[in-house]
Amino acid sequence: MTFNPDADVSDNKVQRRGGGRTAAIAGGGVVGLGAVVVLLISAFTGVDLSGLLGGGTGTQAQPQATASSEGYVKNCNTGADANNDVDCRVASTKLALNQYWTKHVKGYVQPGQVSVDVATSTPCGTASNDVGPFYCPSDQTVYIDPTFFQLLKQQFGAEAGDLAQVYVVAHEYGHHIQNITGTMNKYPNNGTGPTSNGVRTELQADCYAGAFIADLTSSKDKNGVSYFKKPSDAQIQDALNAAAAVGDDHIQQQSAGYTNPESWTHGSSKQRDYWFATGYKNGLGQCDTFAVATP
Predict the structure, then answer these.
(1) Closest by alpha carbon to 32, among 154, 122, 99, 161?
(2) How many C-alpha atoms does 242 have within 13 Å on its Cβ side?
(3) Residues 205, 239: Cα–Cα separation, whole Å
(4) What is the pTM of this model?
(5) DSSP alpha helices (H): ranges in 7-147?
(6) Whose CA, among 27, 194, 273, 283, lies 20 to 30 Å from 265?
């Protein structure tokens, strides 16, 4: 149980879009955990898809998914609903994230958030259950297909419990912060490797997520009830494990049987674990992954 059952989350208003099945993969400046799936596909098929993960905010031509279902996440009014349903949990997490970042970023502008049902088109290409969570800078929107958490369990060996799911949402919001504060423009894509800007960008988003989770209980609903309960040590460890599970080295070892650090775009399991823990223990002030020689 992650949310306070009595918390009012009825203001979440997260779009639910999709319904068109497609095999397209997001591109055009996508950043986020979903891109690890691209790496996995590359390893299994031998097809180089790394170009889809380049920096910038331009739009690439992509096959379009059919938007056959539109609306909002339903039956999501209380913390109890969020505890019982993954769609509601992901949608409700935005309420605490927006409160948190409003306090820490002057002039904060909320990102859009879409719960993807199978597939939907975006300015960055197609969001689908083949891609997983990502942030599209072009429309400043987070796209999350909740079935990604099953992928974490089945393919990457993570438990992917409630708090780990909150971490994933917080990571994507971290990319929004990088976009609106100018970090993405200041440190554009410069290739791959453990010290590349791409890896540093991902590790900073992990650090931001850790800082948010450390402050989890401070965000409250309109009645003054904290959205979240204080996380247990086991939940924190699960979130750390989720961060490590999507490390480039772990994914490469799982899918190909070897690691190639020079191809990394997201960082090793050790790096991801370290920077999440850094944010959790030390706060946002220690999240400048671009200021250290080796992140």
Answers:
(1) 122
(2) 31
(3) 14
(4) 0.86
(5) 35-45, 79-84, 86-104
(6) 283
